[in-house]
Write a structure and sequence with these properties.
Length: 102
């Protein structure tokens, strides 16, 4: 009989993040995901639809849906983000932060 061995996602991730290439792609994906969530959350807080947001920033509902859905791993342009921020009456902030010590 086989013994079932389980390992937590946190343990796997901790091991994988030691690989610099994996870590780079993981952090990039997380940044995109965080950004997409922020757009979705801001839109919902304002109580507007994807269609209305798209119209307000001069794009299509499908562009907004793709962005909110994760954008297929692609970072949206700063131009689009600025138009979204303007439409939501928000300030777009882009910057750098000091990395936390490992």
């Amino acid at each position: 009989m086989k013994t079932k061995v389980s390992i937590s996602l946190q343990e796997v991730l901790k091991k994988k993040l030691k690989d610099p290439t994996f870590k780079m792609y993981f952090e990039e994906s997380r940044a995109i995901s965080d950004l997409c969530y922020a757009v979705t959350h801001a839109r919902q807080v304002k109580g507007i639809t994807q269609q209305n947001l798209a119209k307000a920033c001069g794009t299509t509902q499908s562009v907004i849906a793709r962005l909110e859905g994760g954008n297929n791993g692609r970072m949206p342009s700063l131009d689009l983000l600025q138009r979204i921020a303007d439409a939501l009456h928000l300030k777009l902030v882009v910057g750098f932060e000091k990395k936390k010590a490992a």
